[in-house]
Design a protein that fits this description.
By secondary structure, this protein is α+β, with helices and mostly antiparallel strands. About 25% of the residues lie in helices and about 30% in strands. It is built from three helices and five strands, in the order H-H-H-E-E-E-E-E. The chain has a five-stranded antiparallel beta sheet with strand order 4-3-2-1-5, with no helix packed on it. The longest helix has 17 residues.
Length: about 140
Amino acid sequence: MSISIPTLAEAKQLAKQLRGQLAEKGTVISHSNALERVAQQYGYRDWNTLHVALGNRPPDGWVAGERVRGSYLSQRFEATVVAVEMLRPGWFRLELDLVEAVDVVTFDSFSNFRKRIRGVVGPMGTSVEKTSDGVAQLEIDM
């Protein structure tokens, strides 16, 4: 039986959850200790070894031709991934072809529809760029 390993973001989230669960029981551990424990749960010697095993693979579904869902400028969408380029571990430039165009203008007097978008998202599927109300411009559901 083989166990599929998580993405880097999922492994970090598991470590965070482990810390929280142990803290609720009165045991406080560091984040690095939690990362080491997660690595060992997946059969790896330590976090560094698991991190190498995770490599630079994109999160599941982020390959050309796959479908993704998310929001662009607070507009929900479903799209096909046209292209994916890893910029650095955990950060990807995505080109998406939307099933239905989204209106990127919030004024009633005019519209500007986009069917194809490009953006850079990080390990949690969100862009660094934010809208004026502080929401990520591009968010991919994970």
